[in-house]
Amino acid sequence: MYAPTIRARLRPWLWYTLILCVGSLTVFGSVAADPGGSVVASNDDTSLFIWWLGHGAQVLADGLGFGPGETGRLLYTESMNALGGGVNGAWNTSLAGFAILLAPVTWVAGPIVSYNLLILAFPVLGSLATAVLFRLFLDRLPAFIAAGGVGFSSYVIAQLGGHPNLAYIVTPPLTAWAILALLDLGRTTTEHGRSPLRRRRLWLLGTGFGLLLGFQFYVSTEVLAGTFLAALCFLASLAVFGRRFFRARSWLALGLGSAVAGIIALLCAIPLLVTMAGPNAPSGAIRPHGVWNTDLLDPILPAAPAWLSSGVSPLPRIMDIDPAELGAYVGAPALVAAVLIVACLGRRSDHALPVRIAGATGLLVFLLALGSPILLGGRVFVETGPFALIEAIPVLNNILPMRLVLHSTIALFAVLGIGLQWVLQHRRLRRARALLILLVLAAVAVLPAPQTAHEVTVPDFFTESIAEVVPAGSVVKTFPRPLAWAEPHADQAMVWQSVSGFRYRETGGYFIGSSPESPVTYSAPEDALDELLHGSVFDGEPMPDGDSPEVASAIAELRAVGVDFIVLAPDAPLLPGDDGEYAGFLDAAVGDPIFADEGVRVYRLDQ
After folding, report:
1. Among 63-67, 110-114, 592-596, whose mean pLDDT is lowest?
2. Which residues contact 592 (CB under 8 A, 6 or more apart)?
3. Sign of torsion, CA 471 477 480 486?
4. Of the residues 222, 427, 470, 520, which has the maximum number of CB atoms within 10 A of its CB?
5. Distance between CA atoms of 555 and 183, rounded to whole angstroms?
6. Which pTM value belongs to this model?
């Protein structure tokens, strides 16, 4: 009998990839139909990521000699927050890794298309990576089905509603795969009497593992930190339940391979780590503790992505939370099935070891995901949870506990996959058929609904006539300005800059940084004109008189600090005031616009 050829081995994976692509197009068909003009999100973090994707592509273009050369560095730039010292991209979700990889797409089709390509691809990539892990202990069919449950889980679909950096879930399952592969390498070296360091496979595994972690630094350091916590839980479970299976030589191989991986990952991360110590870095916890906690009822109450959901979670929260963060739902049938599988197969069966390890890992990570305090139905159930230990550790205290449900979800579907394999092996048994019914109900309960897209408003000016009106490198103030609001369109001025090819530098911006007045900031500081308009923007107060001395002084101050143009988009969503009110205000304050077409009015200040 001949060994399967590479083509034969790849064929089922290619078919699986095709099925996953169809699934992604079904869920995100609204953006697939208009990839250059719409996004799926209940917030406007999409504008932030579109900005960074465009920025990375433009930095690469500058480096290759066919860009304007005004964009700045990849991880630190004054293209945004131009008056406030720029932005430290190492502390922001810059997606720098994918920005470089997708630069050719961005150059040809634009940053919105690149963004939506990630939205369509990430469920597929996450499912494939998880399938690689699950194939270590599952047959192909149950591994593929269970991995698809992870890639299209509530966590992933919810985070794709504005947080693609958190929906890139390739690293966590491949980290678990690398740990198991290194442990297994130690077992085989014992059998052959060779030192692990003399095995080429250890160096290959360590190098690949290190590159995986190194790339993750440039996608989401929070997912990387969460993966570290999940790996600790995984290792604790392995040490308890696998102590007879993995001997000292296995742990030695894991330690050596992890050291190789750690060195390579840190070498890859040097530019980012150096930049993190640079200017405009936050000097405190980025988010308040005790808010982004998973409620004990979140796993059984449908949230936005699931087709069973009413669109919002019914649970009260300490403060309003972006629906993209509510991804803990897995459904009561899945939890019941998991409990039965662990109870029945975790004792004496061929599946006992992986069931115990997956079950224990999932439970430990979920306890961390509950945060501190632990909530039940929106009320404090336990005053101090295990996550309080994490909140006391610098850097790790920036992890939002809600986001750790990614790792407990992977563990849950590993258990469900084991249950499905047992069902397929014992399908003639009555209890196997009963479990199959429960697993089908679990799958139906977590199916994601097709996600709704909204239009991205981009005046034609930014892709057509801007080069004729605004010289490259100019400092521009836009109205409406970017605001750190969790609602659609709040930051679309950042998209305008991105699609223009970063022809100008923006005074505003939505980012994580700091200022002399605050250890953590989320947007550019208000300039003199913003301060006068603050009441109209945030409180609905009347616009100030454009002819007033206060407004004239504010305009003079903008000129003095180097602002060259004001660009108003009169029809942009979220622009305060009545129709024409902002245009009338700026006409009175600055004078007639030098350009009034293609959806904008451009006012020149550098005269």
Report:
1. 63-67
2. none
3. positive
4. 470
5. 66
6. 0.94
